What does this fold into?
Amino acid sequence: MLTTKLLTPDLIDDLNTLFCSNKYTEKCFCMWHIIAVKAFHANGTDGNRESFTQLAVTEATPLGILAYQNGEPVGWCAVGPRERYARAIKAPTYKTKAEDDFDNVWLVPCFFVRKDARGAGLTSRLLHAAVDLASEHQADAIDGFPFTTDKKRSSSQIHVGFDSTFLACGFTPLRRPSDSRVVMRRVLKP
It folds into this structure.
């Protein structure tokens, strides 16, 4: 049975179990899009885990959503107010343009699904839960900046998701910053 839960401080151990199943997520601990690259590398694995854990305790809104299969953590989706992701919003692959901006935009910067749980639609389920969470928090819109599906990617690159998943969840393309990436948005308020 598949379920999703908002990350709360008492579920950090579950997130740690999930992230330690992969060498990339274990090192990142979902801080890549939040802090400067220099700080990210200086923190190392333990520092990034500690920084994320502190955010989980202090942030007013959840840092993301965990997916469970039969009670075991198998997937993750980072989501929250766009301002939280300081590094992501300055990146050329996402950087917003003032003319298409709303006041309260949320961002889905990354996903992680354990290798043995892939191919079962978990990313889609997590994205739908992220949209629901943003709606509950009165967001005007929610963005992502996934890869286009026309090229093969390594497992270390697919953390931002694919445009087909976002399209199926009601997102529409805003712009294409490169041949392989597209910024997508789902407007939540008319």
User: Anything to note?
Assistant: The chain has six helices and seven strands. The beta strands are 2-6, 64-69, 72-81, 105-113, 141-144, 172-175, 183-187. The mean pLDDT is 91.
